[in-house]
Amino acid sequence: MVAQSRSMVQSSGLSSLPRPATPPPPPRPNLFLITFRCGVSGVALAAMVGTLLSVVHPQDLSLKNTAVQAIAPAPEAPTSTLPPERPLTNLQQQIQQLVSRQPNLTAGLYFFNLDSGASLNVGGDQVFPAASTIKFPILVAFFKAVDEGRVTLQERLTMRPDLIAPEAGTLQYQKPNSQYAALEVAELMITISDNTATNMIIDRLGGAAELNQQFQEWGLENTVINNPLPDMKGTNTTSPRDLATLMLKIGQGEILSPRSRDRLLDIMRRTVTNTLLPAGLGKGATIAHKTGDIGIVVGDAGMVDMPNGQRYVAAMMVKRPYNDPRGSELIRQVSRMVYQAFEKLSPP
Known about the structure:
The chain contains ten helices and twelve strands. The strands form four sheets. It has a six-stranded mixed beta sheet with strand order 3-5-4-12-11-10, sandwiched between helices. It is α+β, with helices and mostly antiparallel strands.
């Protein structure tokens, strides 16, 4: 401002006029005193804010080196969007009677409709040999590892001789030590139930103990890997409710990212064997599922999307005399009965 005034005076020809005496400058402020006072005021303000925050959100208060950090509101506890279970008592009794009329068959099943809450539980918590249904939770663990950056879809997995397994699958016929993309191996594990592919995925994910720990963390009480595939003696175990619960978590967006969930469901919709749960579904319905069959037990677990927009999870396992076809037929019958019952129900 002073420089501008002088310039204006000079430009107007008034620079020769006598200038008034310049008043003495005001005393310079004591910077140390101001700094000290501001510091004291800042500390006092921080203390007041900290006290207020500790009252409002004491669990969120975090002080470090006497500085108050910004605190976000505490997240609300997640609330389930699922309706309460509505057991279909009459249908459940019909299924129990159907099972009881089949000598030497032991069945367990669990169904839950995500829209209406209609449910069925007949021996759903019984422990069964898992057979190839164990490959479903292994696939979930695979995609979880992808989400966490521990595995990449295109990394190469080596088919070591100790991982090659007989029975189901085509990899067993390929040259040992061949390499395949991890995603391709995971797809073979599900779509054609390849046992060698399964052993390769188990090995890549850190082994059975590591996977069993994850299963427990997901709330699967009866799902355990005890031996590599094909496990014809049935030492690997699960229960219908475990499998249905895991599928329910996937359908609700838990455990996996949306992208990995979509990939998982796409793979499971391409399961080649469609002679169990899918055989009981109505026209236009789709299912993402995984079957299992080792002679002494047969089972299927998945998620069904109905043409009317409703979705339900389903799992059923049957212990039977070796390769007794009544086990598979029982699953088809129950699948048909449940689908028809759910079709008549509307969400509350």
